[in-house]
Design a protein that fits this description.
The complex is a heterodimer. Chain A is mainly α. Chain A contains seven helices and no strands. Classes of the chains: A mainly alpha, B alpha/beta.
């Protein structure tokens, strides 16, 4: 059996290493941080972790329907492709910072990119 | 096969079945979402019995120390008695007022004697129950290992029903009831050289006073920086005690901060969190404790994270404003 993407990346420990770096980048970015005003940081960090786990090919139970329901209020506030791209940019930069090999980064970006239509409720 | 005890019932847990599946399979409602040990929605606590290490992965250290676990990834090998985190924390204990003293800054220090042993970590809070059912939460400033009486700092709030009554009517020898303790903001040993930053306003000093002394008593060697803020000097308290502690412990630093116009010698000008961030712009690797006004806590928590502190190292218990008081009020 071939090693899964999640295992190659280092599993839960890799997610733990990435989540602070990723969330910090997102919160520091004035293009997107208004969407996170007033949210509970602990709960939000847990959500970021669930998202990273999914993007890393790890275990998750999220469906397109969950993604849509979670992001619908943000879409109503103007969430669009430019914001999705900004978050994707931070994900890529986080993985580079953690010295993840380019081919694995590409795989993660493909999984993350596959959520675009659900996140933007299209 | 192990049994799961929950709210006076017990349920048989099948081989390789999670606590979440066992309970929900028997019709017990337990909130859950990702079901893969990540989102922490199904957080529960083992009141009796050991949980597998894998069921605590990713939890804050202080949650682990109190036997919290994630029900969706907990496959028990032994019997467990479990509860939900918001379940009322058990029995009430009778306490007697041993001493009542005004500390300044509208703060009354209560020292309470417990009739039964009462386990807690300094920095957690207790619920104080008055005979007529009025309940308020207060942070614990004492240290259990020194067998000190339980110490609470009660700020006299304008129109505060409990705090006004404590200030005006309660006297030495009176009895009250407490329940708890609750709260995740406390010191755990294991990283004695880590930097500790503590920022509090008003009676938010109470848990920090407990946490600082707890850390020192447990041999913490890393730098400990405490910032206590108020508008003017009359709003601060325990200043002399803290300065004495600084004399004794070279790794302890204490900065009383004033945001008003009058800054006497020995005080820093500015709000406590502003002064702290100007002294410590990089917080990578630091452990941070925040207590006080909810707006200060929320903004400081975010700034501390953006300054490099890890989310799991930032402790700020929620501070809910009630209509007639603040909870926890200290």
């Amino acid at each position: 059996m071939s090693t899964s993407l999640f295992e190659k990346l280092g599993g839960n420990a890799a997610v733990d290493a990435a989540v602070d770096i990723f969330y910090r980048k997102v919160l520091s970015d004035d293009r997107i941080n208004s969407f996170f005003e007033g949210v509970d940081m602990d709960k939000q960090a847990a959500k970021q972790k669930a998202f990273l786990t999914m993007a890393f090919g790890g275990p998750h139970n999220y469906t397109g329907k969950d993604m849509r329901a979670a992001h619908a209020p943000l879409v109503a506030r103007g969430l669009n492709d430019s914001h999705f791209d900004a978050v994707a940019e931070h994900l890529q930069a986080t993985l580079k910072e953690l010295n993840v090999p380019a081919e694995l980064i590409a795989e993660v970006m493909t999984i993350a990119g596959s959520t675009r239509n659900d996140v933007l409720c299209r | 096969m192990p049994r799961i005890f929950f709210e006076k019932q017990s349920y048989a847990c099948q081989d390789n079945e999670s606590v979440l599946d066992c309970l929900t399979g028997h019709g017990v409602p337990v909130p859950s979402s990702c079901r893969s040990g990540i989102c922490q929605t199904c957080l529960m606590r083992a009141v009796e019995g050991a949980v597998p290490l894998a069921a605590q992965q990713g939890l804050k250290e202080t949650l682990r120390a109190q036997n919290y676990f994630l029900a969706c990834v907990c496959k028990p090998t032994n019997d467990l008695k479990v509860s939900l985190p918001d379940a009322d924390v058990g029995a009430r204990t009778k306490v007697t007022v041993l001493a009542k003293e005004v500390l300044g800054g509208n703060i009354t220090r209560l020292r309470l004697g417990c009739t039964l042993p009462f386990d807690y970590h300094p920095g957690q809070f207790v619920q104080l129950h008055r005979d007529d059912g009025l309940v308020r939460s207060y942070s614990i400033a004492s240290l259990p290992q020194r067998e000190e009486p339980l110490e609470l700092h009660v700020r006299h709030l304008p129109d505060g029903r409990m705090s006004g009554w404590i200030h005006d009517t309660l006297k030495t020898g009176d009895t009250l009831e407490i329940s708890g303790p609750t709260g995740q903001g406390f010191y755990l040993p294991g990283q004695p050289d880590q930097g500790l930053l503590l920022i509090g306003t008003g009676s938010g000093l109470a848990p920090l006073w407990g946490i600082v002394r707890d850390a020192l008593a447990q041999g913490h060697t890393g730098p400990i920086h405490l910032y206590h803020g108020s508008r003017d000097a009359s709003g601060l308290y325990l200043i002399d005690e803290l300065r004495e502690l600084v004399e004794q412990y070279p790794n302890l630093d204490y900065t009383p901060c004033l945001s008003g116009p009058d800054i006497p010698k020995g005080f820093a000008a500015g709000r406590a969190e502003q002064v702290a961030f100007s002294h410590l712009p990089k917080l990578t690797g630091w452990r941070i404790f925040l207590c006080g006004h909810p707006t200060m806590v929320a903004a400081t928590r975010k700034k501390a994270f953006l300054s490099g502190a890890s989310m799991k190292d930032i402790y700020a218990d929620p501070f809910v404003i009630a209509t007639d008081s603040i909870k926890p009020a200290a």
